[in-house]
Amino acid sequence: MRRLAVPLVLALLAACSNEAPQQEAEATDIPDELAGAAPTVIAATGIGTPMAERVAVLGVLNKRNNLTRELEMKPGEVRRVFDDVVVRVSACERTAPWEEPPETGAFVQVNVLERPDADSAPEWRRIFSGWLFKNSPSLNVVENRTYDVWVKDCRMSFPGEEEPVRGNAEDDEEDAPAAPAAPPSPTPSATASPSNPA
Prior knowledge:
Layout: H1 2-15, E1 55-62, E2 67-73, E3 78-81, E4 85-94, E5 104-114, E6 123-133, E7 147-155, H2 169-175
Antiparallel strand pairs: 1-2, 1-7, 3-4, 4-5, 5-6
């Protein structure tokens, strides 16, 4: 019995390797039926970064295998993740720093490739279309048994928020005010103590 076990163990060890299994490439092409024009969200004209220059940061969670992805998308962009989810961002907004309460949101559409029943072919189904809010996620929720999508940030700026443009480090040192000189420390002989009068 032992003679049979040793070759079997050696054959199993030979089949194993220290290399990680190859991961399959993730499909990132947007299906033709979902590549159409996005709904037009009219952005309020006024202060702040123009809509085309804003960047929405979204989180996507696959609940089946606990995988997450962080997506950075400009309004109008469409991205395919996890092979069977397509996320489209149409707009993102954030309240001005002087407005209360602070809020960040994005208009998002989520499409998932699902089978209506076990005998049919998979087809794309829209599971969400609307505004998602970072600070009030319960206002509008992506309800799906497999995927969750949420807003993390909307990168944009308002007048007065920009950092001042700084030069190189040498210029900063020349422009910096001089530090006040420290007062000279008294010498022990010059100080009088109650036990040793001067």
